[in-house]
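Feature request disguised as a bug report, sorry. It would help if multi-protein outputs had a clear separator. Right now it looks like this:
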Amino acid sequence: MRLAAIQCKYFAEEVVPAFTAVTKKYQVEKLTFLAAKPQPVPPAQPIPPHYLLKDGDFVQASHDNDLLNREWPKVSTEAVAHLNKLESFAIPFAAGVATDEIGFQETAPVFCSTVATMMPAIYHLG
């Protein structure tokens, strides 16, 4: 329980400000690579996911790879710093050392939203 509380504090003091830094830089530089490419969807069909993982590997990715490669250098330092902090936060929960019920439950919506937003960068680094 103590570790979960420490992780929540780390999330608030390290992860969130790092995400703010990368998104501010992204906006200042007028970047667009985080937007997924639109996918044609037949009427009455569910919208397919932009990214799909199977056994830990990407099997589907929907982004403009050329755009990502052009724009990435402008925000790479901030993006990598944020993703490293996000990963450091997640490790104790993934390993079962910190309790999900106490810590991850409080941070899960923002964590998941951040991961979804940063998925093109995660894919790029993978």
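(second protein starts here, but nothing in the output says so)
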Amino acid sequence: MRGWVRLLLPSQTQSLFLPIEADLREVEKRIERSTEVEPLLLQEALRHVMLAPGKRIRPALTIASGRMFREGGASLHAMAAAVEFLHTATLVHDDVVDQPELRRGAAALYTMVGNSVALLAGDYLFAQAAATASETNNLRIMRLFAESVMTLCAGQIAESARGQDWCGADRERYYSTIDAKTAALFVLSCKAGGILGEASFAQTAALIRYGRQLGLAFQIVDDILDLVGDEAVMGKPAGSDLRQGVITLPVIYLREELSDDVMREAFSGGEGREQAIQMITERARTSGAVDRAYQEARELAAEAAQCLDELPAGEYRDLLMGLTRTVIDRDA
């Protein structure tokens, strides 16, 4: 199946997703069909962002969370596609705001079509996500979807409002930001699956806690890899977050080891910015700051795993358990 080829993942993740492979194929078909639109410029934009290789973790969370309680079907596949549309929409808009040149190793959409068209393509994907979620014919799902979009937007605005305040950034603010920008979508994925699977209130609550802790751990590892990951594997230069003025957990801890002059220069537009960023990324590779951040990610993943004790045993719970390990032990 052509769509499944685009889901190429590390071997351990491929095997982890085997119980839901057929479901993911159906989700991929929906994603492919969504790009068959006019005008041609929109079609090209959608294909560039939607058919690029991706982890598809959020659709997998939705499917596994639902299949744990009942057989899958069109509603579950629709919701899984909806969360991927929503996720991609946020990435398109984020790139317009942050202006990175690359996304997943390929050109960011705005570099190809301009800011205005990229923004409109992102808007289209938000609408596509809502329309696809509505196929579930479930009022709880639609309310959850709307609330999640509001949380995502509020998180992005809060981060933008803080600007490049490297001095005032702290751990509490960081967690508040990633809770809204990343964990909220993991929570949506898991909770929606539970709702469609008709899980009990207690089981749905466990899925919510699992999704939140997993999402937080996922983002911390992303932020670590941005500093110390292999550039060839990551598909972007080390320190990309610094160039965008984003202050992450490992950088907050690194700040204790670096002079204010270096930090100030890294978040300025001066000639010495690249040198300062290089100094920070080099220090990160030998610093205990990265180990501190990794430890927090591992603890969050362990907390996510504990939430699964309240859910039915079986291959779908095993899949969710496996994700608590793969989100930590990855290189991209």
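Even a blank line would do. Unrelated, but nice: The radius of gyration is 19 Å.
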